[in-house]
């Protein structure tokens, strides 16, 4: 078990969830912002990278 993979995937999940939550809050308040989309993109890319670099594969 690699601690780096756990920390990286956890951080990616937090960033992804923050982007999704802020996107829905912005839509609800009728305030369309661009930065939640950047957080979502970064989170997805980081999770894909973590899955590719999973130890033992």
What string, H for helix and E for strand, traces the elements in order? HH
Portion in strands:
under 5%
Count of alpha/pi helices: 2
Give the overall shape: elongated
Low-pLDDT runs: none
Average pLDDT number: 87
Distance between the termini: 12 Å
Give the radius of gyration.
14 Å
Largest sheet: none
What does the oligomeric state look like here? Answer: single chain
SS content category: mainly alpha
Could you tell me the number of beta strands?
0
Helix content: over 70%
Keywords:
mainly alpha, elongated, 57 residues, 77% helix
Structure characterization notes:
The chain is mostly helical and about 55 residues long. The chain has helices at about 5-30, 35-50. The chain has two helices and no strands. The protein starts with a helix and ends in a 5-residue tail after the last helix. The mean pLDDT is about 85.
SSE arrangement:
Elements lengths: L2 H26 L6 H18 L5
Helix pairs in contact: 1-2
Give the gist of this structure.
Keywords: Membrane, Transmembrane, Transmembrane helix. This protein is mainly alpha-helical and 57 residues long. The chain contains two helices and no strands.
């Amino acid at each position: 078990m690699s601690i780096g993979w756990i920390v990286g995937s956890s951080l990616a999940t937090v960033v992804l969830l923050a982007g999704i939550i802020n996107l829905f809050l912005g839509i609800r308040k009728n305030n369309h912002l661009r930065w939640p989309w950047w957080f979502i993109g970064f989170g997805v890319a980081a999770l894909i990278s973590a899955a590719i670099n999973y130890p033992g594969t």
